[in-house]
Amino acid sequence: MLDSNNVGLREAVQQNNDPVLREFLRLLALCHTVMVEERGDQLVYQAASPDEEALVLAARSLGYVFLSRTQDSITISEMGVKRTFQVLAMLDFNSDRKRMSVLVRDPQGTIRLYTKGADTVILERLRGRGPNQDFTERALDHFAEETLRTLCLASKELSEAEYDEWSRRHRVANILLQGRACELDRLYEEMEQDLELLGVTAIEDKLQEGVPETIQLLKLGNIKVWVLTGDKQETAMNVGYACKLLSDDMEILEEKEVSEILEAYWARNNNISGSDCVSQQHPEPLCHKKRALVISGDFVDTILQTGEVLQKKGQLWQQLACHGTTDPQEQGSLVEKAFVDLATSCQAVICCRVTPKQKALIVQLVKKHKKATTLAIGDGANDVNMIKTADIGVGISGLEGVQAVQCSDYALAQFCYLQRLLLVHGRWGYLRICKFLRYFFYKTFAGLMTQIWFAFHSGFTAQPLYEGWFLALYNVFYTAYPVLSVGLLEQDVSAKKSLRFPELYTIGQQDELFNYRIFSVTLLHGVSTSLTSFYIALWAFEDHVGSRTVGDYESFSVTVATSALLSVLVEIILDTKFWTALSFLMVTASLLLFCLFSFLTQSIDAFRIAPAVFRFPDATQNALTDPYILLVILLSLVVNTIPSLTIRSYNAITGNTSIQQNICWKARREPEPSVELRTHVPRGSFHHRSSYAFSHQEGYAGLITRGESLRTKGTHSTTKGTHISNSTTKGTHISNSTTKGTHISNSTSKGTHISNSTHSTTNSTKSTTKDTQSTTKDTHSTKGTQSITKGTNSTHSTKGTHISNSTHSTTNSTQST
Questions:
Q1: GO annotations under biological process (predicted)?
Q2: How far apart are alpha carbons 309 and 299 in whole angstroms?
Q3: pTM for this one?
Q4: C-alpha span between 239 and 228 (Å, rounded)
């Protein structure tokens, strides 16, 4: 609702003097697939995307209100006058057409076609280059400087004869069993010709808070960030600059540059050299330059399907033939590998104008040719294929719906939460699982391999060294809890330090905490502990007896078992970096459970009840009350612990520490962040025209024409910052700011400037929006992610809409904050 004091703008619309302005606003109210629902006295719109809802709300704010729709009609209110238009046909949107149209008959019987779509497809279908097209292109360039997503609006009038002929062929095409889609596309293309330009709209798709900082941290953590978007190239690059994925000092490699250097890059990395079939071009290694790769979906199809970009030059195929590579599938695989090598050597990759299927294929391509863990993040239905293809799928719950969340492994409210998911919880999860595995193997080898050494001295008679109850409870109660506490609670540095030093994340990518070397060291450590515990006890019990009648088989078994158990617990205590009350309780519980079960299973009463089951009556009590046995256990514990303490002391004194330890030491000494992070970064002088994002495959016109409604959303969002700019013949500039943050400007020829605001008299107004965070679902840990693929819609929230309508060459630019 506009402010009641803004009578000037209402009069400009109510005068109804400009037919182009009237058709412009009428198109916004008619050409869409929005569904409307009445809730009391309010109309609630349900749109397939926030962009469509923003445009319909913009038309409503100017008096052109979308009221209702049926299967074959649309009812709108034009400045209070209700009008019903008969829907003759809806020419649906898809990612190939990049536009949608609606064919309607107005109450006077006039048939008109209303079309909106990307500027690249609308401008080439105009009747001719009109006097306003230069102004329109300048408006597009101006909007592009602010990274806005644009749409061009056009229309044309049809005669009854033209419509009857086209409608007859349209009905025939609709009932075809084969080639139906191609025939419909051909008819749509025929209808959408000789259009008259009405104006352009631009939607401000602002980055969520914290997106540049998050991408910067991910890059410092050696995570490759690829952007897969349905936007056109210029818009995707502008967004890349806004989120600090691209910088002014980067060399941008577009398709023609990629096609020129891909052959030489492949040849260099495969060591192709020699005689007649070798390319002489050797470009500078990519690792020495900051480069970014920007390609389109069509180029990706070329790489994935035919390799045509290299086949045109012919030289690479000759090289492959020289090396005996003649199988087409093998040739295509080599081309794909060369492209992936080139892309991964760049600091950033942006794929624009890609369909949902192409997004999934790109993720699959990286998984096929790189030993990397892939993560895909998106917020819309167009990102579902990509999320399901990646190793880890993350969905953002927002204005785009919950389709991505329902198909993902993790659900986030904002893109910036990804930094904690990966750099904090993901790295902690990797650290914990590695320590858990390492000490699980260690305690198993240290405690149970003593039976192997005992077999050498018992003549392999299959007599067990330990009591049966100790064997049954060793991995369940005696040693499980300390290892479990490490696997659940361990931290090397705090969450703040993890975000301050994202370089720590590279440890998981390189598998430094658990690999074949670590497993071998753990195996040797466990074997040495078992040997020490067994043979020190064997040496002490050989030809010796204690102060009491101790020295029998049962006492020997208890001595070895106690030595091995205490050695394992001390080793876990030494390597635990993060102590909590629960950690202390776990270690204490292990010792108490050992004492409790030893007393219960070795009591005289239990032996009398079942002597075949409880075979060690009072063995632990007799052994552990003898000072000689206690000294033997202490000796075994010291000998088992000294090597670990010696290695830790040597590394601390000589500085021979790991990368992780060096970074942790640096984290404790430096309280300030290692890099300055800012939300907004100036883009320099890099200007490109932007365009509306077409990323989903097909629209919802079919549901409407069949009488089916869209699925009701659980939540409804309103557009908070709508900007409308209209240039008419008279040249008067009127600016208004409403309670919703709507900014509307209209210019006429009299040169008067009138500004009205609910807060202050200014030409630029600020609108306040509320950001609602949904619940974050974090149930797993993510480690070692080396590549992230995301849709740009996942990092944006629609904050405003700009609409520009041009009828004459008078130029007036409106900028809003």
A1: Golgi organization; phospholipid translocation
A2: 8
A3: 0.68
A4: 12
